[in-house]
Amino acid sequence: MEKTGLKIRVYGDRILKKRALSVKEVTERHAQTLSQMAQAMYETGGIGLAAPQVGIGERLVVIDIGQGLYKLVNPCVTKKEGQQSMEEGCLSVPEVSIKVKRAKKIVVRAMDETGKPLTLQAEGLLACVFQHEIDHLNGKLIVDYASFLDRIRIAQKLAELKERSDDESLPESRIKPRKL
Length: 180
Ligand code: NI
Description:
Bound molecules: nickel (II) ion
CATH topology: Peptide Deformylase
CATH superfamily: Peptide deformylase
Structural class: alpha+beta
Strand order of the largest sheet: 1-2-3-6-7
Radius of gyration: 17 Å
Shape: globular
Order of helices and strands: HEEEEEEEHHH
Number of domains: 1
């Protein structure tokens, strides 16, 4: 398969802090984007990926925890029950994990890649991933759940990631000085 060309945005990239826009009408372009996102997720070994993580400010997510692929448009949680705490990582915050408290059972409303409305129930890990990806659509990252001690523990790593993402936004000639 060809590479998707989608690049995973890393902590420090401003798009990760922005609220993604609702999709008004699901088109072929959205279906294609969702397929590319799924491919990018599999290539990077992720179990979920939200559009802002590949630089797209629309409410699209893909999820596969090993029980089948979900490709969702405008997902939102309509019911929450119970509580669970899991150690979460994120493709956009590599080498960092944070314990995040979330609802244990949820109901999610969304549309599929053809625009058909769906209602899904999830619990445990799947519920956790749904909530994590929907957070991305609202500009929220696992680091926003960090406790005071977490913040001390991950400060160095975050500084490194931020520096890396600042570097990448510079013109290429400034990253690698040309050899004369
Ligand atoms: Ni993530």
